[in-house]
């Protein structure tokens, strides 16, 4: 399970879109903090996997099958994000 330290959300990227669900916005921002992940890609992953926790779990396990078919998400991007998580960049 990946957790952010209290107050670290202020360090996450800002979103361009307006979100009615603050939890979804936090999830988008969390994924956007990964190298190479923008807002559109983060939303696509959340749409497919339904939560930031599931997305981060799949990324950290380098579960290419779980992330297969999501536009713009491939092995290189997953590996870079997994490496960042291993270094505890977030």
**Secondary-structure element order, as H and E?**
HHHHH
Number of strands: 0
Radius of gyration: 12 Å
The major sheet is characterized as:
none
Q: Looking at the structure, what is the overall shape?
A: globular
Number of helices: 5
Structure characteristics:
90 residues, mainly alpha, disordered N terminus
Please, could you describe this protein's structure?
The chain has 90 residues and is mostly helical. Residues 1-10 have low confidence and may be disordered. The chain has five helices and no strands. The relative contact order is 0.17. It starts with 21 loop residues before the first helix and ends with a helix.
Secondary structure blueprint with pairings:
Blueprint: H1 22-32, H2 39-49, H3 52-60, H4 64-67, H5 75-86
Helix pairs in contact: 1-2
Could you give a quick summary of the protein structure above?
With 90 residues, the chain is mainly α. The protein has five helices and no strands.
